[in-house]
Design brief:
A three-stranded antiparallel β-sheet has the order 1-2-3, with no helix packed on it. It is of the alpha+beta class. It has three helices and three strands, in the order αααβββ. Helix 1 runs antiparallel to helix 2. The protein is rod-shaped, with a radius of gyration of 31 Å. It comes from Rubrimonas cliftonensis. This is Copper transport protein.
Length: about 90
Amino acid sequence: MVALAGLNRWRLTPAITAGAAPAARAFRRYAAAEIALRHGVLALAASFRLTPPPRALAEAAAPPLALHLHGPAAMADLTLHPARDGANMAE
């Protein structure tokens, strides 16, 4: 975008002020290309918010913690979901 803006400013603008008609057409084309490129960059940057950070993916994929407790009078299986800091569910 900076290269297109520089071309418009230092090469095409003086040619337009001198009265060159092809320079005016080229200026419009380059300005349209600069706007399209800017919209593409903004769309790409806006799409980044739709992807979760890698640490969130790793936490989501973590298996639950499972314990098997066995004593002479009783036996129990305990499972903690999602088995990380914060609120957990015990079964």
